[in-house]
Amino acid sequence: MANMELEENANVKKIMHVLRHAPHGTIYTYEGLEMILIMAAYEQDLSLAFIGDGIYALKKNQDTAGIGIKGFARTFMALDGYDVEKLYVDQHSLEERGLTVEDLVVDVEVMSSAEIGRLMKEQDVIIHH
Amino acid sequence: MLHTINKSPFASDSLETCIRFLEPGDPVLFIEDGVYAVQAANSFSPLIEIILKSNPVFALQPDLDARGITLVDNGVKTLDYEGFVGLVEEHQVNSWL
Amino acid sequence: MKIGILLKEGPYNHQASDTAWKFAEAAIKMGHTVDAVFLYNDGVSNVTKLMDPPQDDRNIAHRWSELSKQHGVEILACIAASKRRGINDDVLIEGGSITGLGTLTDIAIRNDRLVTFGD
Fold first, then answer.
1. A61 located within any domain
2. Counting Cβ atoms within 10 Å, is residue A2 exposed (0-12), middle (13-18) or buried (19+)?
3. pLDDT per position as a tens digit, A88-121
4. Which of C15, C23, C119 sits opposite B84 (nearest CB)?
5. Is residue A73 part of a domain?
């Protein structure tokens, strides 16, 4: 049994999605989220890292009605239902923007850049959006 | 892990962001407009010198040539596309787009 | 080594398509397998045969088509990103096809490396 689990784990890849763009000025974060939602169905070891302006995608109180673009902040709240639970936020980027976890729509793990850097090094695949 | 940077440091914070996440020993490769970072004696030269103390730094020669950069910071190694592939053989890739 | 490429930017607007192509050529020359080039975001515009640059400029779609013909590299455009941008089967280069993000996930899983190019 333990062997079987080990064998299964060998086929699971660690894939990290790095979100570094603000949400509406470009499509990168939105299409990144679409990619993440599909990959979530493949039972890989997925994680998301929000760095720099990527943090703005998680900001509360976004109302895109006036710019003619569909909002998607709430979609991040659905990630939990897809078993995507590793959401890391770069502390430096968060503080730089005068934000705290209270300003974000989902529960995240705030980490130092060095800690996220160590996690990056463990990944099989890293995709920046 | 191989970190690639493709933006001019004068236009983007990619370089300064990347180095916060860099683990000692991991190579940094400048490509496309990223190569402007390693032109000798610019305002990023002191930063490149600091990175070089803990990490190997590379720049893609065809991108340097295309931009008329003939002199790079001391310690920066240049390579061609096959050299780029060679780094990818040795490392997983983190492209800081 | 088996390599997958993810290309996230449109042709001409940015050097990403050129770098990705040069990288793929070098990898193949060195004996590696380039499994697929997956096109995402504006990258899907790399596969339209309707592009018609001036004679003295490179034809980026043609390059991808040749890479596919000569080395069996799959050139795959994401269906969701393609639909958004008006790319469909009618405009595809020879060797190109439209597929889902599940295929990208498979590419990420089955290759030794996934190398991303983009803006």
1. yes
2. exposed
3. 999 999 999 999 999 999 999 999 999 999 999 9
4. C23
5. yes
Show the domain range for C75.
2-117
Task: Residue C17: give its domain's CATH number.
Answer: 3.40.1260.10
Please, are residues A73 and A105 in contact by the beta-carbon 8 Å criterion? yes
At C15-37, the pLDDT tens digits run: 999 999 999 999 999 999 999 99
Structure ipTM: 0.97
Confidence at residue A2, expressed as pLDDT on a 0 to 100 scale: 46
Neighbours of chain B (3+ CB pairs under 8 A): A, C
Domain containing A50 equals: 12-128
- Contact between residue C95 and residue C69 where contact means Cβ atoms under 8 Å apart: yes
Structure tokens at C57: 């400029």
SS (H, E, C) A16-68: EEEECCCCCCCCHHHHHHHHHHHHHHHCCEEEEEECHHHHHHHECCCCCHHHC
Residue A59: CATH number of its domain: 3.40.1260.10
Q: Total structural domains in chain C?
A: 1
pLDDT for B33-87, tens place per residue?
Answer: 999 999 999 999 999 999 999 999 999 999 999 999 999 999 999 999 999 999 9
Restricting to C residues 16-45, those with a Cβ less than 8 Å away from any Cβ of B are 16, 19, 22-23, 25-27, 29-30, 32
C32 is written with which tokens?
């590696």
The active-site residue, picked from C75, C78, C92, C104, is C78
- Contact criterion met (CB < 8 Å) for C32 and B85: yes
- The verdict on whether C78 is a catalytic residue reads yes
Domain at B2-96, CATH homologous superfamily: DsrEFH-like (3.40.1260.10)
Which residues of chain C does A19 touch, with a Cβ-Cβ cutoff of 8 Å? none
Of C27, C29, C116, Cβ closest to residue B95: C116
